[in-house]
Amino acid sequence: xxxxxxxxxxxxxxxxxxxxxxxxxxxxxxxxxxxxxxxxxxxxxxxxxxxxxxxxxxxxxxxxxxxxxxxxxxxxxxxxxxxxxxxxxxxxxxxxxxxxxxxxxxxxxxxxxxxxxxxxxxxxxxxxxxxxxxxxxxxxxxxxxxxxxxxxxxxxxxxxxxxxxxxxxxxxxxxxxxxxxxxxxxxxxxxxxxxxxxxxxxxxxxxxxxxxxxxxxxxxxxxxxxxxxxxxxxxxxxxxxxxxxxxxxxxxxxxxxxxxxxxxxxxxxxxxxxxxxxxxxxxxxxxxxxxxxxxxxxxxxxxxxxxxxxxxxxxxxxxxxxxxxxxxxxxxxxxxxxxxxxxxxxxxxxxxxxxxxxxxxxxxxxxxxxxxxxxxxxxxxxxxxxxxxxxxxxxxxxxxxxxxxxxxxxxx
Length: 412
Prior knowledge:
This protein is an alpha+beta fold.
């Protein structure tokens, strides 16, 4: 499998200036070097990482999206060559890349490809909306890219017609859950509406997204959170992940907000930080609990600007299952999934198997409601809109908790 990488081509001894950004990869032992069409200032060059430039470069967000699209295009060439039984050579790859890029800038205004429009929209979302919204949008559009394959680099937004959308919907339903299908269709609809507002198309084709089904809210009780908090962990890594999660259970903060929490956001008796929601900035103030304050004290001398040590969301989710296992969180819950074709599938799993970063936020809300904290206070801490659909599902969870406790106490 090919492995594209990027490199800044600057003359030996050059200390400043704008230089070509090249893509490099090997094909059957021969090296291909291809100009990406992007030039970057030497002063922002870095030697390690996926990209050879730092985030301090103002153009970095847009360039990253373009380079990611270029890598996907190269992978699509590889897939097509393998499926068609064509021998992979440097010349073949160069010819395919030339078809896409040669002379493109001259024609760009009137012949922008669908991939161009997607990249433009992703940059718009990344620049103007929250990071979680960008990730969700990127994931949804990647489904559309996978459905179209290499055609995304040759067709235009005008060719995204109702029949194409219907085939995409059927493609999604093949092996995905209903909520995944609905979300991908919602993202596609928003993208098409963006193109309409930009006057790239004259009308918006009919697009049915379907309705999401309710997702089982997996949460920990107060006793389970405290049990986890005081269970010894077999390694420093698991201990840090445990503390990170428990901190979320006592603050209601999202993973991204905890990971980005700086020591300057920590005050004597509270935390104050900012979130981006619906394109605007919102300030949240979270009072300390004894546990959240204890955890911050524990890591106050950690080098760097951040209040707590963190690793990636994905790695945290992986390690959390180990943390839950060592904490003995083996309570079994029944989880129902609705497939894209309407079939309801029920499975029983332990909380240790289902736990994730976001479980801490769900646990905070559920515990707070169970203990009688007013909704107005909870949403002022979590940043939810009062009466929102996302918040409403917690009422059913709390009611079930009441039934469980009544049955347990009175042996009904």
